[in-house]
Specification:
The protein folds into 3 domains: about 250 residues, Spore Coat Polysaccharide Biosynthesis Protein SpsA, Chain A (Alpha-Beta Complex); about 70 residues, no CATH class; about 100 residues, Sandwich (Jelly Rolls). It is built from 12 helices and 29 strands.
Length: about 450
C-alpha cells in the first residue's frame, strides 16, 4: 500500500499556538508532533507521499526526522481533498493495481495495534475492488463530525450513506442505533479504481489534473482551473458499494483546545488554590497559578493569549474572524523553515538581531554574502564546517567565528544530529532579502 498523507490546514482551531504557517499537525504534543505520529504510523505500509500547501513544504521536510517520505507535493492553493487525492492518483497512474491509503496528517490514534488491524481489513476490501473507509466507533453524540451509515455487522460493513454534521437530537439517534460511525477521512482504494471514479463523477477536474507534468512545473496553472471540492461530496456520496471498517482505537481529530486538555496531551505545570478544572498551556513552558476560579483555560503564545471558559474553545473561530487580516496574529513571526532546517528569532532590535539556527544532518546553507550586516556564530550543539571566503574551518561546541559584511560564507552540519548555533547580527539592515547566493543545494542561487 502507498500511504498518502493530506497535510493542509490554516492553523485556526488551535490558535494562538497554531498559525497559518504552523498548523496543528506540527505542534509537539508529548514530545512528538501529530504529523510525525502519522508518518511513523503509516510508514510501515510503504514510503509515504505527502500532499500539502507549498508554504509548508520546508516545515514538512523538517519534521521527517527519519527521512521516510517518498515525495512531497506542495499545492499552490488549497483546493480541498478531491484535487489532492486526484493529484496523487495521476502521478501514480503507472501503478494502477496498487492500493493507496489516504490519511489526514493531524489525527491522533492511541491504540495502533487496533488501527493496523482495521487497516488490514480495509486494504483487503480495496484489493477486492471496493473503495473502503475507516469509520470511527462513536463514543458520544458528536455534532462536530460527519457520519457514515452502515448496514450489517462484522469487521467489514456496507456503507449506505455519508451524513453531514448532525444536530444534537440526530446525533443522539445515530449513537443509539449502533450503525453510524464518525467519518475520519481515511480512505483505501486501488489507484485504477479511483481514477475511473474521478473520470465518471468529477470529469472536469480529472481532465485538468491529467494535464499535470511529472515534474509538476505546470501545477499552478492546472490548479488555477479547478474548483475546490471534497472527496466525500465529489465521489463518496455518489457510490453505493463502499465498504466501512469500524475503527475502535482511541481516535481523535484533536480539533480543539478542550479536546487536547481532555486527552492530557500537554504538560501539567499548573497550580490551583480553591480552583477547579483550570488549565494553562504555554508555548514557553510557563507555570500558571489559579486562585478562586473555576473552569478557566489559558493558552499562551509569544504574541497572544487566549482565555476561555472550559467547554467553549470551539469559539476561537470567532476570534480568528476578527484578526484574520492581521498577519502578526495569524502567522508565526519568530520561526521560519528552510530546506536545510530552521531559524528562530530571539531578539529583533534596530541595532542588532539574534537567532538560534538549526541545520539538519548532512545539510548546509547556501554559499552567500550580505551587504549590510555582519554575523557572529557560536556553536551550541553539534559540529560544523564553515566556509569563509573559500577557507574551511571546523567548529565544535563553544567555538565561534565572526563573519564580516560582504564576505562569502556557508555553514554545514557535519554531525549525525541537528546542528544548533546562535547568530548575532549587527549592521544597518537585517532583512532576509539582504542576501546574494553563489551556490545552493536547493536551486535558489
Amino acid at each position: 500500500m502507498i500511504p498518502v498523507i493530506l497535510s493542509g490546514g490554516q492553523g485556526t482551531r488551535l490558535w494562538p499556538i497554531s498559525r497559518s504557517n504552523f498548523p496543528k499537525q506540527f505542534i509537539p504534543f508529548r514530545g512528538e508532533t501529530l504529523f510525525a505520529r502519522t508518518l511513523n504510523r503509516v510508514a510501515k505500509y510503504g514510503r509515504p507521499w505527502v500532499i500539502t500547501n507549498h508554504a509548508l513544504v520546508d516545515l514538512t521536510r523538517n519534521d521527517d526526522s527519519l527521512s521516510q517520505i517518498d515525495r512531497i507535493v506542495g499545492e499552490p492553493t488549497p483546493k480541498n481533498t478531491a484535487p489532492a487525492i486526484a493529484t496523487a492518483c495521476h502521478l501514480l497512474r503507472g501503478r494502477i493495481n496498487e492500493v493507496i491509503g489516504v490519511f489526514p496528517a493531524d489525527h491522533l490514534v492511541e491504540d495502533e495495534t487496533r488501527f493496523h488491524k482495521s487497516m488490514q481489513a480495509a486494504v483487503h476490501a480495496a484489493q477486492s475492488g471496493h473503495v473502503a473507509t475507516l469509520g470511527v466507533v462513536p463514543t458520544y453524540a458528536a455534532t462536530g463530525y460527519g457520519y457514515i451509515q452502515t448496514d450489517g455487522t462484522g469487521e467489514v460493513r456496507k456503507a449506505t450513506r455519508f451524513c453531514e454534521k448532525p444536530d444534537e437530537k440526530t446525533a443522539e439517534e445515530f449513537l443509539k442505533s449502533g450503525n453510524y460511525f464518525w467519518n475520519a477521512g481515511i480512505f483505501v482504494f486501488r489507484i485504477g479504481a479511483m481514477i475511473e471514479l474521478f473520470e465518471k463523477h468529477m470529469s472536469e477536474m480529472w481532465t485538468e489534473i491529467s494535464h499535470l507534468k511529472e515534474d509538476l512545473s505546470n501545477l499552478s496553472d492546472v490548479f488555477s482551473k479547478i474548483k475546490s471540492d471534497s472527496i466525500d461530496y465529489g465521489v463518496m456520496e455518489k457510490l453505493s458499494d463502499i465498504r466501512c471498517v469500524p475503527l475502535d482505537a482511541g481516535w481523535s481529530d484533536v480539533g480543539s483546545w478542550d479536546e487536547i486538555l481532555k486527552l492530557k496531551l500537554t504538560e501539567d505545570r499548573n497550580l490551583s488554590i480553591q480552583s477547579h478544572n483550570c488549565n494553562g498551556v504555554s508555548e514557553a513552558h510557563k507555570t500558571f497559578a489559579f486562585i478562586g476560579v473555576d473552569n478557566i483555560s489559558v493558552i499562551e503564545s509569544e504574541e497572544a493569549t487566549l482565555i476561555f471558559n472550559s467547554g467553549e474553545s470551539q469559539r476561537v473561530k470567532e476570534v480568528y474572524e476578527k484578526i484574520k487580516n492581521d498577519e502578526k496574529m495569524v502567522k508565526n513571526q519568530r520561526v521560519e523553515f528552510r530546506p536545510w532546517g530552521s531559524f528562530e528569532i530571539l531578539r529583533d532590535e534596530p541595532y542588532f538581531k539574534s537567532k538560534v539556527i538549526r541545520v539538519l544532518p548532512g545539510k548546509k546553507i547556501s554559499y552567500q554574502s550580505h551587504e549590510k550586516r555582519s554575523e557572529n556564530w557560536v556553536i551550541v550543539k553539534g559540529s560544523a564546517k564553515v566556509t569563509l571566503n573559500d577557507k574551511e574551518i571546523t567548529l565544535q561546541v563553544g567555538e565561534s567565528i565572526f563573519v564580516p559584511a560582504k564576505s562569502k560564507h556557508r555553514i554545514e552540519n557535519t554531525g549525525s544530529g541537528v546542528l544548533e548555533f546562535i547568530e548575532v547580527q549587527t549592521g544597518t539592515y537585517f532583512g532576509e532579502d539582504d542576501i546574494t547566493r553563489y551556490q545552493d543545494d536547493f536551486g535558489r542561487a
